[in-house]
Fold this protein.
Amino acid sequence: MSSALTAADILARLPHRHPFVMLDAVTELVPSHSGTALKNISISDPVFAGHFPGEPIYPGVLLIESAAQLCGLILAEVGADGSPRIGYLASVKKFRFVTLVRPGDQIRIEGLAGTHFGGMTDFTVKLTVNGKDVASGSLVIALPNG
Amino acid sequence: MSNFDDIKNAAAERLALNARLRTMLVDGLELPVDADKIEDDQPLFGRGLELDSLDTLEIVSLVEEEFEVYITDDDKSVFGSINKVADYIVANRPR
């Protein structure tokens, strides 16, 4: 069954905190299967102080991290002790960046789980802005004792 | 067909399966080795082909795609060698 998460829900399920919480909302979430998240890009983000002065472009590596946080949420079941299980980014494969992301953009991030084995799950992810492809690739998330 | 021909055909099929697996691993994992140089009983991990745990996920995915055979967490011994992967596929592939 699909559900949605607010920013507060996301903070309750991920260990990340400012300035490394990358997602603003999750609009769809099917645990262990798939999810869709939104990320708003603001000129207030301190990363633009250096990337790049006078030409703000959101870094591709942070797009990967944003997708990884969505994949972590897809796997973030609550453990036996009541706390969410934390997934770690284990591999990044075949990532392509096809459009620059700038302040004012709202990124839609889609993640779909694939093969699972030995506590690791691979995901196909796709990022778009207004329906236009921004980036896509594959990630592996590892869950300790998963 | 004679019993001898059956055995001969089964052996040829197995050789072809092992060769397909070797090529699948080398291409899919982008291994810097010649597929023909991998021995059927050579360990895939450790001092064998030196694969790691991330590679197991890739092999599981490749076997699913190529053979429609699903390896689960209970089947970790499958990754011992090419022969062990082949045995598993023969025992579990759709008829």
Summary: The helical segments of chain A are 7-13, 60-75. The beta strands of chain A are 3-5, 25-30, 34-40, 88-97, 106-117, 120-129, 132-142.
